[in-house]
């Protein structure tokens, strides 16, 4: 098993580099950039997209400067060159990419272009929100979906199976952001009730609360965003668990176990559970990354929660490349490591699985 883990860890390197190459190359072809963003802010246009209207008047600049930075009319070329040097864009793309990889390999992510803060500090500052949304959503989803899927498999075709399928499919069809807005309107001071807070993870003066008060306040704040984020996550996992158990229940070893007089509970959890859960665990890395980093963007925005998803989105819009690429690097690295942990979970649940023999 050690050799297999080592091979997987070594494969992380080319995979990570490949993903960074693709995204770095795509960024080179996108309109705008940090210099355009800085120019737009200087000229009061607010963002990088304000300078794409046209270039009828060059404002005294040469043709090359106008073609390179449409919004730079009236700014001296020396100032533009100074901006390029400040952002490191005066170097060739290949040199910039290799320097970025070398720094990232040492977990040196530099400083944000526009926030004047270390990228690591920004990520660590936003991490509690993403951890809260991700961990609670996964925990609730798995604690509800797996027992429900097993119950549906045991009562396949009954009215219980029918109406629970209808409920979870209806919940899956509701967009999370739309459900979040509905929760705000109903329970957060919209048109009906003011039961839950509108924003944030804690109340003002949270540091002065007692331990029980801090826990209750924290739970009070996360109920609505976690409910909105979890509402659509039950369907896939529940039906996957149900179908996996149904496939295993129909196999000969289950009939043999029953013929030996084993109780239904022992058959289900002593024999079927181990095999049926393999396919559920296989999808864990994707679910983890989706909920932990990308799936919470709209929820973070609606509930005014400042997490990693919102940080990456704002960095992409603002062309804050150090933050954007550092977040991409970290999420990709974590995703690849979690995928390896998923394989280890296979072996933990079913020791008969040997990846080294399969590789050989």
Describe this structure in words.
This protein is mainly alpha-helical and 360 residues long. It folds into two domains: 2-114, no CATH class; 120-359, MetI-like fold, CATH 1.10.3720. It contains 17 helices and no strands. Helix 6 (119-154) packs across helix 9, helix 10 packs across helix 12 and helix 12 packs antiparallel against helix 16 (321-349). The model is unreliable at 48-67 (pLDDT under 50). It is found in: Cell membrane.
Fill in the CATH topology of the largest domain: MetI-like fold
Please write the CATH class name of the largest domain.
Mainly Alpha
Number of strands: 0
Tally of helical runs: 17
Topology order in helix (H) and strand (E) letters: HHHHHHHHHHHHHHHHH
What is the makeup of the main sheet?
Answer: none
* Percentage of β-strand residues: under 5%
User: Helicity range of the residues?
Assistant: over 70%
Mean pLDDT: 78
Rounded to an integer, what's the Rg over CA atoms? 26 Å
SS content category: mainly alpha
Q: Ranges with pLDDT <50 over ≥5 residues?
A: 48-67
Shape by Cα distribution: globular
Number of domains: 2
Corresponding CATH architecture of the largest domain: Orthogonal Bundle
Distance between the termini: 12 Å
CATH H-tier superfamily of the largest domain: MetI-like
């Amino acid at each position: 098993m050690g050799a297999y883990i080592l091979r997987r860890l070594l494969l992380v390197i080319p995979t990570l580099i490949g993903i960074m190459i693709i995204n770095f190359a795509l960024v080179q072809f996108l309109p705008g950039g940090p210099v355009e963003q800085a120019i737009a802010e200087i000229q009061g246009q607010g963002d990088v997209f304000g300078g794409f209207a046209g270039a009828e008047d060059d404002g005294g600049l040469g043709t090359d400067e106008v073609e390179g930075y449409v919004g730079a009319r009236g700014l001296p070329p020396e100032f533009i060159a100074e901006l390029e040097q400040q952002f490191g864009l005066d170097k060739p793309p290949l040199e910039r990419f290799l320097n970025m990889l070398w720094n990232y390999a040492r977990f040196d992510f530099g400083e944000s272009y526009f926030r004047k803060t270390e990228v690591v500090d920004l990520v660590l500052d936003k991490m509690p929100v993403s951890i809260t949304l991700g961990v609670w959503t996964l925990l609730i989803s798995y604690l509800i979906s797996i027992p429900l899927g097993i119950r549906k498999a045991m009562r396949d075709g009954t009215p219980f199976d029918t109406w629970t399928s209808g409920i979870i499919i209806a919940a899956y069809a509701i967009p999370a952001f739309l459900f979040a807005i509905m929760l705000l309107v109903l329970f957060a001071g919209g048109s009906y009730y003011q039961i839950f807070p509108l924003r944030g993870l804690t109340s003002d003066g949270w540091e002065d609360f007692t331990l029980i008060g801090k826990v209750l306040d924290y739970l009070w704040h996360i109920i609505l965003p976690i409910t909105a984020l979890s509402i659509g996550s039950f369907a896939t996992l529940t039906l996957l668990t149900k179908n996996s158990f149904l496939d295993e229940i129909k196999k000969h070893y289950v009939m043999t176990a029953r013929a030996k007089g084993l109780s239904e509970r022992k058959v289900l959890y002593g024999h079927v559970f181990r095999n049926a859960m393999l396919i559920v665990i296989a999808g864990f890395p994707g679910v983890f990354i989706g909920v932990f980093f990308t799936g919470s963007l709209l929820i973070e925005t609606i509930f005014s929660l400042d997490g990693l998803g919102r940080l990456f989105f704002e960095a992409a819009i603002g062309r804050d490349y150090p933050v954007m690429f550092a977040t991409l690097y970290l999420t990709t690295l974590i995703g690849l490591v979690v995928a390896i942990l998923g394989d280890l979970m296979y072996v933990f649940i079913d020791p008969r699985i040997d990846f080294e023999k399969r590789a050989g």
